[in-house]
Amino acid sequence: MAKVPEITLSSSCNRTRPVIGMGTSSYPPADPETAKVAIIEAIKAGYRHFDTAFAYRSEQSLGEAIAEALNLGLIKSRDELFITSKLWASFAERDLVVPAIKTSLRNLQLDYLDLYLIHWPLKLSQEVRQMPIVKEHAFPLDIKSVWEGMEECQNLGLTKAIGVSNFSCKKLEELLSFAKIPPADNQVEMNPLWQQKKLREFCKAKDIHITAFSPLGANGTKWGDNRIVECDILEEIAKAHGKTAAQISLRWIYEQGVSLVTKSYNKERMKQNLEIFDWSLTEEESNKIDQLPQRKGVTFASILGPHDLMLELDAET
Ligand code: NAP
For residue 221, which atom of ligand 1 is closest to its CA? Predict the structure, then answer.
């Protein structure tokens, strides 16, 4: 079974976490049994860090997989896992935060999360069910009051740590100006074609860890494509190491000192994604990747609707 290195999250929680996690958002959505079986396979392969969200509808499958892994003796205790879930934008209101985490915990059959994130830096009206989201249903987030709700979740012991997702430097500045518990993590889109250099520098200075999502460019989803897994430069580097372009992307992200969550429900690929820790990129290879032309992240801006609140989800700024 693969051994995954761990990092320590910020001093606000002092938690350790495996640097690579299994994402559980799939497109089109996997049926619950497929997701559960894949998650059990991931635990067998060595994954101990799982990323879910109320919005992914994968919390139940993850909860069932954890219960079964305990029954099968694949893990001895829930404490061996690091579980992240996220506050959906429809519940981004002070008084809805604690009930929302309790719903997620019920879905997951757990007593606590390891990390709870504000999923998007915006508020959606509660009736939103479909993409693209029309402008009339999206509102600016009242970060201060929602963060108070997040702090209450940590103070109540419902989660060990709290953080954010898709937050720009500007939004983080605002949050840090009043946070009693600073965010431990900012989960954002990051890969060799969207490197988030400015945001990474900012977060490093502020002791906020970064977790990269869509590290393989989300190929096969409505918003992603094959520009990472079929990138010529990554493939050329991969050839020299006997690896794949996907593994080069994951290794490069790891070497930047950030964590990553990647999704594969395929047994072989989920194993390959863990085989990135016993070799390294040369300085020349890293420089080549650093200089790849950047394209603006398109994960959400492209599917949500082209107006300012949505476009702000492309972090960096
Ligand atoms: P990703 O991990 O970049 O890509 C997933 C796609 O790549 C899947 O189609 C997968 O297919 C394929 N794949 C996986 N390993 C591969 C490999 N070694 N070679 C070739 N193809 C491979 O994209 P993602 O799912 O968008 O991001 C990962 C996780 O991040 C999500 O599951 C979710 O947990 C999280 N996320 C968070 C946010 C947020 O707003 N916070 C947004 C998006 C995603 P197979 O399953 O068939 O292998």
Answer: 9
Q: How far apart are CA 195 and CA 106, in angstroms?
A: 36
Joined tokens for residue 193: 């074609």
SS3 assignment, position 75 = coil
Q: Is the peptide bond before 29 cis (omega within 30 degrees of 0)?
A: no
Nearest-CA residue for ligand 1 atom 37 is: 213
DSSP label at residue 191: B
Q: Which CATH number fits domain 6-316: 3.10.20.120, 3.20.20.100, 2.40.160.210, 1.10.150.20?
A: 3.20.20.100
pTM of the model as a whole: 0.96
Q: Residues with Cβ within 6 A of ligand 1?
A: 23-25, 51, 119, 165-166, 187, 213-221, 224, 229, 244, 246, 261-266, 269, 272-273, 299
Render pLDDT for 57-84 as a digit per residue (tens, 0 to 9): 999 999 999 999 999 999 999 999 999 9
Per-domain boundaries in the chain: 6-316
